[in-house]
Amino acid sequence: MAWALKLPLTDEVIESGLVQDFDASLSGIGQELGAGAYSMSDVLALPIFKQEESNLPPDSENKILPFQYVLCAATSPAVKLHDETLTYLNQGQSYEIRMLDNRKIGELPEITGKMVKSIIRVVFHDRRLQYTEHQQLEGWRWNRPGDRILDLDIPLSVGIIDPRSNPTQLNTVEFLWDPSKRTSVFIQVHCISTEFTMRKHGGEKGVPFRVQIDTFKENESSEYTEHLHSASCQIKVFKPKGADRKQKTDREKMEKRAPQEKEKYQPSYETTILTECSPWPEVTYVNNSPSPGFNSTHNSFSISEGNGSPSHQPEPVIPTADNLLPTATPQDAQQWLLRNRFSPFSRLFTNFSGADLLKLTREDVIQICGPADGIRLFNALKGRVVRPRLTIYVCQESQQSPDQSKHENGDAAAFFVYHAIYLEELTATELTEKIAQLFNISPRQINQIFKQGPTGIHVLVSDEMIQNFQDEVCFVLDTMKDETSDGYHIILK
User: Fold this and answer.
1) Is CB count within 10 Å lower at the N or C end of the chain?
2) Whole-model pTM above 0.70?
C-alpha cells in the first residue's frame, strides 16, 4: 500500500520539474518530432502483432532496417502522439509506394545484384475480423463478382518485374525488384472500410485495414522463401474523394483545438512510412509454384483467319471450330482456356480434361469463376455463338446447273448452290472481305460492289444499303473485270 501512495507523488515531482526547467526549451519540439516520437514497442503492442512479438529481435528499436517502404499519402492529423499513424485512401485511386534500399555498405551482400520478392497485402487491423478473414473475403467476393481487393497499377509502376496475382487471393499481389535500382509500385485498393461493418444503416464507422509488405530473398533452390523484412501501416479506405474530405475535416477539427491540446497530436505528414512488423503468418503462399499473371482487359487474343474484319468487336464471337472436345487431354484443355481468354482460371482447372470441363453445370462454373466469367466460360464450353445481325445467301453465277430430276409436271427444276454470309458490322468493307473469302482472293482485288437495280442499272453498295437489306435475302454474284486494273467488280443480282 505504501508503494501505491508514492507513485502519484513521484509523477507529480517529475511533472513539476519538467514544467519549471524545460518548458521554454521544449516548446514546438512535439510538432517537429510528431510520429517519430513513438517507439516500436507501441506499434508491436497492437493486437495484430502480439502473437508474433517474440519473433522480432530485442534490439529492433536501434536496428537499421534493410529496406524502407514509403506510402505517398498524407497521414491524419487527428492521431495522438503515441498512437500508430492512420492514412486515408480513396477507393480505386492509384497510390505510390517507394521501395527503398536502406542497407549499410557490406550488409546482406548475398542480395547485391540480385532480385528480391515482395508481397503486398491488404489485411484487417481488428483482431475480430482477422479471425473471420476467410469468411469476410468470401462474402466480399460474392457481393463484388470479378473484382479484386488489391491491384497493381502496372503502367505507373517503375522497376517491378514479373507482377503476379492469384485469383483466389483477392487481397494479395507480388512482384520482383532490384534493390539497387529505383523502384516504385502503385497500388489500388477497391474495397472500402464500411463494407465490413456489422450493420449498414448509413454513417457507420469504417474498419481500419493494414497495408503490409513482406520481402524475401532466394534460397539455394532459387525459391523466394527466406524472409528479409516486413513492414506495415494502418489505413482506412473511403469512396472516391471521401479520403480528401475526411482529411480536411480532421484538419479543421485540429485547428479549433487549444494549443495545449494540439501538442498531444501528431502533425500530418505528406507521406506514410511503413513500420517494421512480423512477417505475415501465411508464409505458405510464398512458394515456387507460379501464380497466374495479371488479367488485363487490353490483352490480345488470337482469332483464326477468316472470322471477321480487321476491326473486331471487343467481345468476339467464339468460333465453333474451337469447341472443346471431350477427348481433349488436360494439356489440351489448358491450351483451350488460354486461347479463349480464361488464363486467370487455368490454374484452377490444371487437372481437368475436356470431358471434366464439359460435365460442369452452369451453376458449377459460376460458383468457381464468378457470374461474369462463369457465364462466358459456360457458353464457350457449350459452343454457343452469337446470332449474326444479318445473313445473306449468295450464289456464284458459274455454279448454277440444271437439276436432272423432274417435277411432277415434267419440267426441269433449276438447282443452285448458295453460300451463307454472316455480317456483324453491316458495312461494305465487311461484305467485301466475306465475298473475297468466298472467292479465295484478296479483298484488294475487289474494287467495287454493285447491286443490280431497276431496268438493269448498277447501284453502288454502301453501308446504308446493307443496313436496309432484308435478313436472309438471296443474291446471284456476277463478276466483271476492271479494265483499268487487275481487280474485279462484283454485281449482286
Assistant:
1) N
2) no
